[in-house]
Amino acid sequence: MNLTLYGYNDHWIAVDCGMMIRQDLPNSPLQVPNLETADALNITPQALFITHGHEDHIGAVAWLWPKWNCPIYATPLAAGLLRLKFAEHQLSSAAIKVIELGEARESAPFTVRYLPLTHSIPESCALMMLIGEYRVLHTGDWKLDPEPMIGAPINASHFQALAPVDLLVGDSTNAPMPGHSGSEGDVARALAKTLSQCEGRVVVSCFASNLARVLAIGQAAQQCGRRISLMGRSMERMVSIARGLGYLDDLPALVPPHDLGYLPPDEVVIIATGSQGEPRAALQRLAQGRHPFIELEPGDNVIFSAKVIPGNERPIEQLKKRLTQLGVSIFDEANHPELHATGHPAQEELNKFYQWVRPKHLIPVHGEARHQQAHQEIAQALNINAPLAPVNGDMLVLDGQGLTCEARYPQPPCIINQNNVVAHPGLDNTKATARRGSLYLALPVTASETGWWRIGRLMLDSSSASPLDEDSFSEWLDDQLEEIEAETLADLRFALQPRLIHWLTEHMQHMPEVHLQIMAAEAPTA
């Protein structure tokens, strides 16, 4: 859920406005940023700048922008996606202003220039902001891809000309990863090789927004004498917008899904949504034999050309079990890592980029605490000042004294329920403290082959509640996670909540109001 606010002399702008899917809640609702803090501080952005078109950067715009009613600046692809969202919400798209790569816009005293970077979606841009005497570079999501398939590689001279910048707000997602992220060109060659060796029908599942991957699959299929078809609403929508912008002129002709049954299996490649095990996606329907136009058979192949997002391990494993029961061969990041490339920079790329722009200060964002800490270590080795690893709700100040955290505001999440932005159902939305206190527990977990286990420290806030032995409580929680058999985060929460209430009843003098949040966390690599 990316939403960053920048202010100078009481003038504010927003950068990105994204959403996420809460898999630990019933029906997997959308979660969006909470604007209560901004409202309380009288912060209303005068412009919204979008770095790229991924859902975690634009997914909440249609929900939250009506509170601001400000101009929205976005490159053509992101603008096209936003217009569709606005049409679904019956909002006028007049506020959406298309900005071309390299152009600048002003929301005085901010001057913001869009500088193209490579990422796993076309038109991803860093924002170079000139504000008073400060030069701030907000990188957004990026990598250094020498062969991005769609669009040009990064022009180093454009970024070297910016040096030195006063502050860089940068992507930490792959900061712990040594070396260099892979190239889309390498993935395209690996896909072509794999497809040439496959017999029977082939289904390739990837993120709909990764248009370079879609193009690579289409071209690889054509080389092997196969026809391609798209399955999934988001895939069809993304390809339609991209074609209108000229990004997929080299994509072979598409076969409508209802005509696939007329083609021999070894002449078919299906590009489908559902790489994360989503229950209503095309790949899930194929695995369950519920697709109206095609049935998978023994000898068919499914390629997962996408990384597993932390928290999705269980539904993906269940999906793969169903596919295996159908006699389908599976290619994924475990047995064929060459079939996917991350969209975020590893350590070599971070080092090279920072040598180009020479930031004086750095704020590590994106990822989790361990990613931010690894990012800080890289900055330290390059003599870049990076004293803070901020969390949601931190008010940071850059002035002549450097970077400081002025205040820390709690950010209880909001979800979309029946087309409305409402408080998370596990939180007490009233301002009054519960009569016997409140206990807020945030539990970061990850899935393993044998069950669930806790990642990192337990986040516990026992406001006005009777004392609690946190060490005993943590040990008990770890034991419960080992015992509970749950396929999803929602199942885990359902099983853990009553046990939690029982333990607290036995061990606390007064029973507080309990607010439990279970979060998917990424297991540290070896």
Automatic annotation (TrEMBL):
<feature type="domain" description="Metallo-beta-lactamase">
    <location>
        <begin position="1"/>
        <end position="180"/>
    </location>
</feature>
<dbReference type="GO" id="GO:0046872">
    <property type="term" value="F:metal ion binding"/>
</dbReference>
<protein>
    <submittedName>
        <fullName>Ribonuclease J</fullName>
    </submittedName>
</protein>
<dbReference type="GO" id="GO:0004527">
    <property type="term" value="F:exonuclease activity"/>
</dbReference>
<dbReference type="Pfam" id="PF00753">
    <property type="entry name" value="Lactamase_B"/>
</dbReference>
<keyword id="KW-0694">RNA-binding</keyword>
<keyword id="KW-0862">Zinc</keyword>
<keyword id="KW-0540">Nuclease</keyword>
<dbReference type="Pfam" id="PF07521">
    <property type="entry name" value="RMMBL"/>
</dbReference>
<keyword id="KW-0269">Exonuclease</keyword>
<dbReference type="InterPro" id="IPR055132">
    <property type="entry name" value="RNase_J_b_CASP"/>
</dbReference>
<dbReference type="InterPro" id="IPR042173">
    <property type="entry name" value="RNase_J_2"/>
</dbReference>
<keyword id="KW-0378">Hydrolase</keyword>
<dbReference type="InterPro" id="IPR001279">
    <property type="entry name" value="Metallo-B-lactamas"/>
</dbReference>
<dbReference type="Pfam" id="PF22505">
    <property type="entry name" value="RNase_J_b_CASP"/>
</dbReference>
<dbReference type="GO" id="GO:0003723">
    <property type="term" value="F:RNA binding"/>
</dbReference>
<keyword id="KW-0479">Metal-binding</keyword>
<dbReference type="InterPro" id="IPR011108">
    <property type="entry name" value="RMMBL"/>
</dbReference>
<dbReference type="InterPro" id="IPR036866">
    <property type="entry name" value="RibonucZ/Hydroxyglut_hydro"/>
</dbReference>
